[in-house]
Amino acid sequence: MSTGHHYESVSGRIVQRFPFLGTKKGAAILAAGVFLVIGGGLAGLAALPKISGNLSKGKLRSPDAITEDTYFYGQSPPVYPSPEMTGGSGWEDAYKKAKEMVGKMTNDEKLVLTAGKPEPVRRCDGNIAPISNVGFPGMCLADAGNGLRGTDFVTAWPSGVHVGASFNRKLSAERAYGMGSEFRKKGVNMLLGPVVGPIGRTVRGGRNWEDGDVQSVSSNIDDRTMHELYLWPFMDAVRAGTGSIMCSYNRLNNSYGCANSKALNGLLKTELGFQHSGVSSALAGLDLAMPHADPFWGAELLKAINNGTVPQSRLDDMAIRVLAPWFQLGHDKGFPKPGIGMPADINQPHQIVDARNSSDKTTIFDGAVEGHVLVKNLRNALPLKKPKMLTIYGYSAKKADKTNFEPGLFPQWVWGPESMNYDDIKTGMLNAADMLPGTARAEQTRPIAINGTIFSGGGSGAVSTSLVSAPFDAISQQCWEDDTIMFWDFASPNPAVNSNSEACLVVGNVASAEGWDRVGLRDDYTDGLIRHVANSCNNTIVVLHNAGPRLVDQFIDHPNVTALIYAHLPGQASGVALASILYGKVNPSGKMPYTVARNETDYGGVQDPDLPKGKYELFPQADFTEGLFLDYRHFDKQNIEPRYEFGFGLSYTTFGYSNLKIEKSSAVSFDSYPEGPLLSGGPASLWETLVRVTAEVENTGGVDGAEVAQLYLSVPGAEDGHTPLRVLRGFEKPFIKAKEKATVQFELSRRDVSIWDVVSQKWLLRNGTYTVSVGSSSRILPINGTFTV
């Protein structure tokens, strides 16, 4: 089970950023007919080596270095046997069909369902071979949670962090429907995403825009933190009906994720009642190894079954769990041929399968718009009002110079269009080292992507695109309509600045990708460019396409920096979305899905990745000693004033809050511990509504707009030092016309108001007084009330 490839730099976004999975709309992407694999990228048998291969090369630096993983045995409690699927929680019919089909298979055929097999004629990231004897056509698995990678005629959807910044459940669900539809049309049975987990633990993590990085680090997590932070979104996903969950390459409490019986058998299949398959130690609960299984699966697993080491019932259950989602989602009836739209070589002639839907354009645009977060707007610099002269600066304003699929190049893409590429990029672009014209080479030390705008992060979670609208394209069109004189300079670090320009737009970015962590949370080149422009232009507007937190204290207090937009990673509609906000065609409504500090050190000990050192140089350790105190919880505990707090975001109008009402339900039990049968996701009573909260939000300004009303809960016992001051437990986003009001309603479930009791191993409803706070951010909470248990 993973929140990305590993727990060490988690930053998936279902609780804070993809909350729709916990609602009736939770099966949105499922209804589109593809499996959800909660995790990111392909995890497999990398769990099995005794020592970390990439760290074991060369001479050990420490004479007392641990060299055998037997040293760690027992640190993660063993949980055996692996529970068999029962077919409950609405999976009864699928379970019955899967069990019947498996009953007709030989053991060799069952093994086919439990391991990937390379397929040379299609470009699926994982393949399950067909079994003709029972009419099973096979499966195609493909990356990733932000749209399809490595093919054509698909959409580059807004990224996870971008949709998270929208705080819009409906929009998140619509994006899921649209994405699932594209996967289905391409013959992709299993979508390898999205990634889930809490706010990114390691702020410089390379995949904070969508998930965690791949390292051989052991994520050592205490029981309460596991349940209240890391397991929480998996509960939502399982309850919503996800078909598969991916384990991780790294270790969890020093037991490899894909062989961790506590995580797979104990937490996932027992506590959460998960009915389906775990992807990528069969006895530890693994059901499917991907993208291939040699040499530890396949024949070796059959040998273990034949000699009794692995029970026959475990193989049968593995096969049933893989097939059950296939039946549940209707892949046995009318589903396209697996991988039909995933050609092995996109440069060669192939069948065109256009997976896009014209009806999705509104979702693509709205998703791109609502993930922009306006955090500064001095002297009402925005929206722009038909300026006579406008100048644009910065490397991230324009398109990359080419997007064509050159032979031998496409498989090496890390960004899609060549904003950044592992191959040298020619034709007079900026050089990443000295910022001069020349060639640019993407390396792990590069803080920015200097060859054009970015709309996605890099790596296996990156998306392909059929087109991209860059900021310069859309703004140029608006300048044409407004008869605005326009100048631009994308390449110069110290460009000439025309003081007659009514507005100067500086567009930069933050590079981030799988495989490496960010070198810092700011960069000298972009900060210097902004200050240089601001020194001569009294209306300097900054736009940053960022894949995670980006510090701005090097320039934000400059009196001529009048506006700042965190533009995140908007997908292919990037330019048109930004232009619509800049010119006031839409009112910005995004909120920060993370905290922006004033200094890197404000993030505390989790700002940097954990590295090999001392006796643990072969087995790096990441001790999650911060417990529940991530992001805004950490800033609250340490009483640190952030630059921009979690949940903050400005609008072109203003809002007020009033009339808070709190009502305890009289129809449910307020006993300390939950009761009722185990359903998918946890005990039934965990999902009962205990408290209803309403509040009024008024648009006090002169512009129609949407506001994200946020509810934070303080539970009794925060003085114990292990409980956060307050936690986000709900949000609503009404659109309110100027001078009008809307009533927002929040429902707090038993889980929302409970903590995990490590002694009883149950969710505990503490006795005492609970405080409810509602407002526009984690620090702006004008209305408060209490209830008592």
Automatic annotation (TrEMBL):
**Location in or out of the cell:** Secreted
In its UniProt record, a GO molecular function of this protein is: beta-glucosidase activity
Q: Which GO terms describe its biological process?
A: cellulose catabolic process
**Keywords associated with the record:** Carbohydrate metabolism, Cellulose degradation, Glycoprotein, Glycosidase, Hydrolase, Membrane, Polysaccharide degradation, Secreted, Signal, Transmembrane, Transmembrane helix
Catalytic activity, reaction form: Hydrolysis of terminal, non-reducing beta-D-glucosyl residues with release of beta-D-glucose
* Superkingdom of the source species: Eukaryota
The record's EC number reads 3.2.1.21
> Pathway involvement?
Glycan metabolism; cellulose degradation
Matches recorded under Pfam families: Fn3-like (PF14310), Glyco_hydro_3_C (PF01915)
Species for this entry? Pyricularia oryzae (strain Y34) (Rice blast fungus)
Top EC class of this enzyme: hydrolase
Instruction: Report domain Fibronectin type III-like positions.
Output: 707-778
Protein name from the UniProt record? beta-glucosidase
